[in-house]
Amino acid sequence: MKLVTAIIQPHALRAVTDALREYGVSGLTITEVAGYGRQGGHTEVYRGAEYTIDTIPKIKVEVLAEDADESAIIDLVIAASRSGRIGDGKVWTTEVHDVVRVRTGERDADAL
Q1: Fewer CB atoms near the end CB (10 Å): N or C, the chain?
Q2: How far apart are CA 60 and CA 8, in angstroms?
């Protein structure tokens, strides 16, 4: 089992969730996060004063998936969130050793 984690632009969230839902993903976790990558921060002007914003708002999407679905989910997230500009985000996977549904006690694939 894998945990697919994606950091994406906020405007791409709807396209990503729609693509995952269409693929058959039954659950995911979405978190508002902030950070920076190669683009660093940016400057903004407010009432004539310039401010440096060190972090940029992003969305973190996490999906628990069967090993067989890992590549398809990664490809879907990339296709739905790619704009071709700097700051589109990152996708990575983590090995998950055990998953338990709290309500029923089901484990692993049955817990998805």
Answers
A1: C
A2: 6
Give the contacts of 9 (CB within 8 A, at least 6 positions apart): 58, 59, 81, 83, 87, 88, 89
Burial string for 88-112 (b: 16+ CB within 10 Å, else e) reads: bbebebeeeeeeeeeeeeeeeeebb
Amino acid found at 103: R
Per CATH, the architecture of 2-111 is what? 2-Layer Sandwich (3.30)
Q: How far apart are CA 99 and CA 93, in angstroms?
A: 15
What is the tens place of the pLDDT at every residue in 11-63?
A: 999 999 999 999 999 899 999 999 887 766 667 777 888 777 778 899 999 99
CA distance 70 to 5: 11
Query: Counting every residue, how long is the chain?
Result: 112
Q: pLDDT at position 14, please? A: 97
Tell me the Ramachandran region of residue 99: left when phi exceeds 0, alpha when psi lies from -120 to 50, beta otherwise.
beta
